[in-house]
Amino acid sequence: MVSSTATLSGRPTREAVAGSSRPPRRAGVLLDRDGTIIVDHGYVGSPERVELIQGAAGAIRRLNRASVPVAVVTNQAGVARGYFDIDDVERVHRRIAAELEAEGAGVDCFLFCPYHPDGVVDSFTRHSEDRKPRPGLAIAAAMTLNLDLNASWVVGDRDEDVELATVIGARPVRIGERPSTDGVPTFRLLADAVPFILGHLEP
Ligand SMILES: [Mg+2]
User: Fold this and answer.
1) Which of 2, 116, 135, 137 is the most buried (most CB within 10 A)?
2) CATH superfamily of 27-200
3) Residue 8 has pLDDT above 50, yes or no
C-alpha cells in the first residue's frame, strides 16, 4: 500500500509524493458478462459458444468514445464445478475481445472469479471475496483502472450484480425483460442501458 508518512525532516516520502500526484479517480462501468455482453448459454467455456448480444459492441463503443473505463467482472463457477478450466475462461475472453474489436469496441480489463463453495475441483472450491456480490473483483478493477467506485456503475442481469453495486457504493443498472419493482433502473439490453448511464455520469 502507498505510505503517506513524512520523513523526519518533514519532507514527504517518495511514496507520498507519488500518491499525491496521481490523477483523480474516475467513474467507470463494471459489466457483467453472461446475459449482459454475451448470450447466457449456461457455463460458456469455449470460444465457439461466444455470441455477442445484439447491440452490446455498439454500447461498449459508446462508453469507449466517452472515455469511460470499462471492466468485465464475472463469476465463472464453471471452473470450480469442473466444466472448464482457467485457460478456457481466458480463451473465451480473448474471443469476446476480438469480436468487440471487430466492431471498434474494447474492454479495459476482464476479471473473473473461478471459485465456488460447492465446487468439485479442490483448488477452486471455497468461499471467495471475489465472487459477486462480494467486492473483490470490483476493488481489483478500481485499482487497475483508477476508478472511483462511488461514482461508478454496475450493469448485470442478476441479483448478485445489483447487490455488488450496493456493497461497493456504486449505482446499479439491471438488464432484464421485466419492469423494475425495486427502483433499480432496468433495461432490456446493454444498448438501452448505456445512454441512460452516459446521461447520468457525474462530470
Ligand atoms: Mg449475468
Assistant:
1) 137
2) HAD superfamily/HAD-like (3.40.50.1000)
3) no
CB 50, CB 96: distance < 8 Å: yes
Å from CA of 66 to ligand 1 middle: 24
Query: Residues lining ligand 1 (ion), CB within 5 A?
Result: 32, 34-35, 157
Q: How far apart are CA 137 and CA 120, in angstroms?
A: 22
- Ranges of each domain in the chain: 27-200
Span from the CA of 156 to the centroid of ligand 1 (angstroms): 6
User: How many Å apart are CA 184 and CA 182, to the nearest integer?
Assistant: 6
CA distance 20 to 4: 9
Q: How far is CA 74 from CA 32, 93, 94, 109, 129, in A?
A: 5, 11, 14, 11, 13
